[in-house]
UniProtKB/TrEMBL annotation:
Active site: K189
InterPro entries linked to this entry: DegT/StrS_aminotransferase, PyrdxlP-dep_Trfase, PyrdxlP-dep_Trfase_major, PyrdxlP-dep_Trfase_small
Keywords: Aminotransferase, Pyridoxal phosphate, Transferase
GO terms under biological process: polysaccharide biosynthetic process
Bilayer-crossing regions: none
Protein name: DegT/DnrJ/EryC1/StrS family aminotransferase
Family: Belongs to the DegT/DnrJ/EryC1 family.
């Protein structure tokens, strides 16, 4: 059986450093807001090429904290609008809603699955304050036109980098392409903790400092609370784990690209479409999506062949009960992606032989 993704194999590949890091934290007697957090934050900011990194409890909170910070700064007001891709992970949308802002769903491009810059302007109103590109599946959104529109309409650009740690767009790391960025370190992400974790990354000192206060019950100094914040901090154990894993993020992303190349070169079947990749460094293949009009039959066939696949995502956000006010939107590209997408097994620990088995099975599907 070829599993979609085996976290145990990932953890094993980082031993004994992972256990050593955890033991160091246990013995330190300090578990929240300490040296491990500070060390990881400065390393990760440097990795992204940004000035500031603020650890948070998870990726969705990182998004919420960015938008809470912009409201404290008076740049956004409750009810203002944020343009998001309609085919994102629902956490992107909930993260905006929970900050009291209104997500406006924008169609993606069929060939990249990222927000379609040509559709963004149709979504802009007098209440629009930000564009929130998501680098979905590990592929950078087309940032140049997005930044040009943001510049023209005086909008903030907030990146959702939960799936694209280490991706590079025109020489700059994802997470350093807009005004502020939200990362998730959910265990299965390209940089994953052993539990929940996230971060705000930005060059904006005010956003960084407000995100830190707002994520710590709104405190500016110990026992001083100018804001009504939330509790969302990266703990010492997760920070120590992330420091270990960050050291091999680039190597692991390179292995993901190698596997993606094997898939793209090896799979030949007219019943499915593969991702087209021109700029390899812009893609870190958090997910390897293929598309087929007979997706459900293909998935059942692969399961029978002992190959586990997943669907990212089976139901588009606007068809979820949580977002029923969006249900009548006409989003044909979004709906087609959700109907046809299938994620092949992909992790840096997969062997060439396992990749070959997946390719052979796909080439025999009829
Ligand atoms: C995983 C993910 C999130 C949410 O991250 P959490 O850490 O689980 O809160 C947000 N956006 C995208 C695109 C994601 O993939």
């Amino acid at each position: 059986m070829i599993k979609y993704f085996e976290l145990q194999r990932v953890s094993d590949s980082f031993e004994p450093e992972l256990s050593e890091a955890i033991n160091r934290v246990i013995k330190s007697g300090w578990y929240i807001q300490g040296n491990e957090n500070a060390k990881f934050e400065s390393r990760f900011a440097e990795y992204c090429g940004a000035k500031y990194c603020v650890g948070t409890g998870n990726g969705m909170d990182a998004l919420t904290l960015i938008f809470m910070a912009y409201q404290q700064l008076g740049i956004m007001q409750p009810g203002d609008e944020v343009i998001v891709p309609a085919n994102t992970c629902i956490a992107t949308i909930i993260g905006v809603l929970r900050a009291g802002l209104k997500p406006i769903l924008c169609e993606p491009c069929w060939d990249t699955c990222n927000i379609n810059p040509e559709k963004i302007e149709e979504c802009i109103t007098s209440r629009t304050r930000a564009i929130l590109p998501v680098h979905l599946y590990g592929r950078c959104a087309d940032m140049d036109p997005i930044l040009a529109i943001a510049h023209r309409y005086h909008l903030k650009v907030v990146e959702d980098v939960a799936q694209a740690h280490g991706a590079v767009y025109k020489g700059k790391h994802a997470g350093h392409l807009g005004d502020a960025a939200a990362f998730s370190f959910y265990p299965s992400k390209n940089l994953g903790a052993l539990g929940d974790g996230g971060a705000v990354v930005t060059d904006d000192e005010e956003v960084a400092s407000l995100a830190r206060s707002l994520g710590n019950y709104g405190s500016s100094a110990k026992y001083i609370h100018p804001y009504q914040g939330i509790n969302s901090r990266l703990d010492e154990l997760q920070a120590a784990v992330l420091s270990v894993k960050l050291s091999r993020l680039d190597a692991n992303n390179e292995r993901r690209r190698t596997i993606a190349r094997l898939y793209i070169d090896g799979i030949h079947n007219s019943l499915l479409t593969l991702p087209q990749v021109d700029e390899w460094e812009q893609h870190v293949f958090h997910i390897f999506p293929i598309f087929s009009p007979v997706r459900d039959r293909l998935q059942a066939y692969l399961t029978e062949m002992g190959i586990q696949t997943l669907i990212h995502y089976p139901i588009p956000p606007h068809k979820q009960g949580a977002l029923s006010e969006y249900s009548s939107l006409d989003l044909p590209v979004t709906e087609r992606i959700h109907r046809e997408v299938l994620s092949l097994p992909l992790s840096p620990q997969m062997s060439d032989e396992e990749v070959g088995q997946v390719i052979a099975a796909l080439n025999r599907f009829e």
